[in-house]
Amino acid sequence: MEEWVALVGADPEMEMRSEAVADLPGGSQLVAQDPTMAVWLAPDGDVRMWFHMFEGNIVGKNPAPKAIKKMHALSVTLSAVLIGDDGEHYDADGTAGYPDFPDADGHDSGELRKPWWKFW
């Protein structure tokens, strides 16, 4: 976690926030607390995306294309790989591929294809 906190602290677009609050209908609130949570901020200070650590991984859900590029930049700094929910790997441009999934000829195609065992 120390490496994550240091990375967030060194990035002027990010900050640690251990609590997230969402207003719900009827005036109640949903509060999530996690000391590993961080936000990526827009220039005006609005939150672009939330991140947190889970089982040693940095997690961010439903990223927009710009967020995927930001996530890739973070992964490079951490000497990590940006992997999506379906096992796809993302590059610096936000392009996804399955680098370990061979094409019909047994070669690594690198293009975005669902493995045959994933149903969609």
Structural domain tally: 1
Broad structural category = alpha+beta
The helix content is 10-25%
First and last CA, distance: 35 Å
Overall strand count: 8
Give the averaged pLDDT, no decimals: 85
Main sheet characteristics = 4 strands, antiparallel
How many helical elements? 2
Please supply descriptive tags for the structure shown above.
2 helices; 120 residues; alpha+beta
Structure summary:
The chain has helices at residues 2-10, 65-77; strands spanning 14-16, 19-23, 29-33, 38-41, 47-54, 57-59, 89-90, 96-97.
Could you describe the 3D structure shown?
The chain is of the alpha+beta class. The chain has one domain (2-97). It has helices spanning 2-10, 65-77, and strands at residues 14-16, 19-23, 29-33, 38-41, 47-54, 57-59, 89-90, 96-97. The chain has a 4-stranded antiparallel beta sheet, with helices on one face. Strand 2 (19-23) and strand 3 form a beta hairpin. The chain is globular, with a radius of gyration of 17 Å. The termini are far apart. The model has no long low-confidence stretch (mean pLDDT 85).
Fold topology:
Elements: H1 2-10, E1 14-16, E2 19-23, E3 29-33, E4 38-41, E5 47-54, E6 57-59, H2 65-77, E7 89-90, E8 96-97
Antiparallel strand pairs: 1-4, 2-3, 4-5, 5-6, 7-8
